Amino acid sequence: MTLGMFIKALIYILLAPLIGGTLAGLDRIISARMQGRQGPPLFQPFYDVFKLLNKQTTVVNSIQVLFVTGYLIMTIFTGALFFAGGDMLLVFFALSMSEVVMVMAAFSTNGPYSIMGAQRELLQMMCYEPMTLLVAIGFYYANGSFMVDDLIQAKIPAIAQIPGFFIGFVFILIIKLRKSPFDLSTSHHMHQEMVKGLTTDLSGNNLAFVEIAEWYDLVLMMGIVGMFFITANPISRLWAILACAVVFFLETLIDNLFPRVKYITMLKVTWSVILIFAGTNLLILNVLK
Amino acid sequence: MKISKSPWVLHYDGSSCNGCDIEVLATMTPLYDVERFGIINTGNPKHADVLLLTGGVNAQTAPVIRQLYNMMPDPKVVVACGICACDGGIFKECYNILGGADKVVPVDVYVPGCAVRPEALIEGVVKAVGILEEKKKKLKESMKAGYCTVDYSKMAIHMTADDYDPSTQYDAVLTEEALRQQAEEKIKATNKPAPKPVAPAAPAANVAPKPAQVVAATADSEKGDKA
Amino acid sequence: MAIPILNVVNFLILFPFIMAIIIGCLKKASVLRSAVIIIGGFTIMISAIYVAVSVLRSGDTSQFVFLQHTELPDKFVIAGEIFLMGLVCFLSIKYKKYYAIIFSLVGTIPVLWMDLTGRAVEGNMHLRIDTFAAVMYLIVGIVGILICIYASGYMKDYHHHHTDVQDRSNYFLALMFVFLGAMFGLISSDNLGWIYFFWEITSVCSFLMIGYTRTQEAVDNSFRALWMNLLGGCGFAAGLLYCSLNPELGFSNLSQVTQTGASELVIVPVTLFAFAALTKSAQFPFSRWLLGAMVAPTPSSALLHSATMVKIGVYMLIRVSPVMYGTLTGVMITVIGGFTFFAASLLAITVSDGKKVLAYSTISNLGLITACAGTGTTEGVWAAIMLVLFHAVSKSLLFQTVGDIENCMGSRDIEDMHGLIIKLPRLAFIMIIGICGMFMAPFGMLVSKWAALKSFVDSGSVWLVLFLVFGSGSTLFYWAKWLGKICAVIHQSFELDDITPRSEMISIFPLTTMIVVMCFAFPWMSGHMVQPILDEAFHTNIPDVIGTGDSIVMMIMVAMIFMIPIGSRFLSIGKNSKMTMSYVAGVNAGDDRHYIDSFGKERALYMSNWYMIDYFGEKKLLRPCIYVSTVLVAVMLIIVVGGAF
């Protein structure tokens, strides 16, 4: 049991950057095709990170390195906890902890773009934090456990009971994956917001760590999307992968369709969506129970 | 894997007529699509490998170009785009133009043209990337020699148009030792130990929170030791 | 070895009053006074720990004590109540705030009448020393005493800075000890009449402490605190009266309330006690007294906010919690608590005064505890007790640190704490630990919140779940931006003189250590301190609320926090990082704090935090919150209490 968990976590730690990096490359190609361009090679994100690792690292202060490393380690830990079958709520708490550490890295630089990015990132966290917690609660309502290990043994897919949560989660994924219209704190390179927001004053190694951490994060998020479809039946895993692909494509599409919004619009829209879809779903579940 | 597979570009307009800038942007359009080569327009010197300069350099932009160049992590290359960036172009004789980009930073690749053709520009960046590869090798050697341990944060390089001296034009990038001394003197001169705050009697209970934007005050009205 | 626990408890209740008299006589801030406070304080702390440890170690978890001869204490209580009433009346007349007299009379006279006519709620027990009391002894004994020790050094500095305030620090310190004595009395008592007496002492004490500076603002705020708490006292007295008038209820002790089980009759006094608890715990609509309490010197804020005053309210709620399960009162209490949690956390975003943020966060967290207690489930009570423990330690540490920072920098505004990590590194690190203790993952507060969430889901309180998830979003926002301000590294800034006296450090270091140790001791605390309380309260055996697997994961997380510095060291080996300036569009003047404008002039550059006053400002949000919650409280009282007649 414990060994099994350990192996699962290890597989995640080894494979997630490969999958995440490839997905990020795919994202760039799809985006380019949507814009009528050819786009970069599939493995471009790997080339980028390799280059960053080989460059000199400039820092504004020494604490920065500490925080960025902390961010990477904690993000990996969060994902490992999820894929090893840990407690969903704990996963999300660990996730917000890692994000806070990243925000501190930006705060510590005292640069205007970084700090602006940090403030916006905090606001983004405030926007999606309710939904991440609600997702865990939704699974608990649907299948009676917070443990990922138990949840994947469900008889019917969770989506049947908590479709509202799924919509809410896909919605906040726009923020989490830093897609337009909600990429306020930092954006992907082609979009440029406030120079590079949160990561403005990072370079070389540190920037590479952030990129890698985002790959881990991407895989974790896709894993959670898959959780909505997985049951004890092995074939359900195919459905889960298919769902991940659809959601991923949808996020890229949204990214290319919408212009960036103001922060207060983001707050209002996300909280309303969460309240309307997830909140109503929760009420109905509670009544039916 | 080669470092040259992902050259990230920082584009700065020295004082061009914007013709070249439009061409630089044109390279990112579907027709030329430089992202095919992994080239990204970053807008942040700390992420960039290639500094694309357009237009001649004037007294006001010179310190900015130097600062951007200094902030870029090694290895880095500079590409002068268009004839103005190469040597001043038709603005060369203007009173405020210092000349081409090479007056303030060492330029690796010159791409002439008025305005520069996107094809030429891409060719220039590809050439620059080759130089980048070489510089990377050199960097490894120089890192062993302790080159990277210079503490730039102590270098309060403040150059305005008034104190710009063409004879020291390469100082910012070449003789770090001299600049550091200069900076340290400046720090010593300006920084007195912070005055010990006299505790005011009124507690800050009812202080209205500050506006949630960048507060830009003049240097005189700066709040004590705060900023 | 075997000192009877009862004697020690008596000592704990009486000795602080003696201490108060001694300190009251020592007018000048002298070494002698500090020594008296430290020696006396540690004596109290050791006795409290002794009682707590012996209770926790003995298998006999609840010890009820029936005192044979209570005539003397009873007379003393009556005299005390009359004295308090007289004091309130006198001060009300002096400051022309006559409404306070009404509340005082309405609360005290029925109780006096009951006492004097022999109708007093006289039970078969007087004292109860059980596990919950032991845990409270630990909180009051350790945190409360540390605050008193802190105060002995702080008041000297305070009067050094605030020369306009008359130095009555002996009076202030004496009040703090009176407060502690009342606290010990309250948590040891089982007799409702006695509890009421100690309850009133704390109300009046807090009133006197808030009004310490005697400025107009202080007087206004202190009277606001007084009338709100006396109103709660009236509720308590009404509960007593109800018990006395309905002898068939058959209880007069707090412990009997939970034994009788929920019924139509029991719920009325429980609702009234819960109402009293809401005022003490500063829940909406009664929060404003706690915000006003900031005008007093910092030690009193620390004492009121963390270990004592506000904890009495939730102490009562947790005591009566099992009765509230599934009743309208329970539902209303949870809704008020959840609403307070959410609204106060939004309000906390909009203020920049450090103490005010702490005050809102106290209100917010107490809202959560109230909500947990209101559910009346085992997990809810478990989470509530854990929150009480962690909140007491973290909050008192934060208040003390903010007080020290104010003494060092002359400001307690969060904006002025920009770059604190450079200016006052020692205090900044302590503050970071305190703030992390309030909201970061492996630390206690967040884990307790987690348990709270589980309990809400189990009890099916959907609205509460929504309040909690949205509230934790905004909680994260206001803590993290404060943390960010502290962490900003400004170059060429100077370390300020850290003038924190040693006596304050005697208090701050143990508290910091406790936060860290409590992270590790979490499972142990759950098993040995909280489980027995649950067993007593619910009279059943309860399975572990947090499984061992999760505890292990949390241990790993705690370990990871300490691993990060080592990890970053390994990952950066062979990489000499070049120091550079921060990016300011190429016009950084060289020190990260100025930029060069288009005229070549240096201009200051400063990034303020976000406060979003236009959206969640106090002007916009505070009144509606109070109205909404007033309606909630009124509905609760009218339906439950009015429905009984």
Summarize the SSE layout with pairings.
The complex is a heterotrimer of chains A (289), B (227) and C (645).
Chain A: H1 2-34, H2 44-54, E1 58-59, H3 62-83, H4 88-109, H5 112-143, H6 148-151, H7 163-176, H8 204-227, H9 236-257, H10 263-288
Helix pairs in contact in A: 1-3, 1-8, 1-9, 2-8, 3-4, 3-8, 4-5, 5-7, 5-10, 7-10, 8-9
Chain B: E1 8-13, H1 19-26, E2 40-41, E3 50-54, E4 57-58, H2 61-71, E5 77-81, H3 82-87, E6 97-99, E7 109-111, H4 118-144, H5 176-190, E8 214-218
Parallel strand pairs in B: 1-2, 1-3, 3-5, 5-7
Antiparallel strand pairs in B: 4-6
Chain C: H1 5-25, H2 31-57, E1 63-65, H3 71-94, H4 99-116, E2 127-129, H5 131-161, H6 169-188, H7 192-210, H8 216-245, H9 254-260, H10 264-280, H11 288-292, H12 298-307, H13 309-324, H14 328-349, H15 354-375, H16 378-409, H17 420-423, H18 425-439, H19 444-458, H20 462-487, H21 502-520, H22 522-538, H23 548-571, E3 578-579, E4 594-596, E5 602-607, H24 613-616, H25 618-644
Antiparallel strand pairs in C: 1-2, 4-5
Helix pairs in contact in C: 1-2, 1-6, 2-5, 3-4, 3-7, 4-8, 5-6, 5-12, 5-16, 5-21, 6-7, 7-8, 8-10, 9-13, 10-13, 10-25, 12-16, 13-15, 13-16, 14-15, 14-20, 14-25, 15-16, 15-20, 16-18, 16-19, 16-21, 16-22, 18-20, 18-21, 21-22
InterPro entries (chain A): ComplexI_Subunit1 (IPR052561), NADH_UbQ_OxRdtase_su1/FPO (IPR001694)
Protein name (chain A): Ech hydrogenase subunit EchB
Organism (chain A): Butyrivibrio hungatei
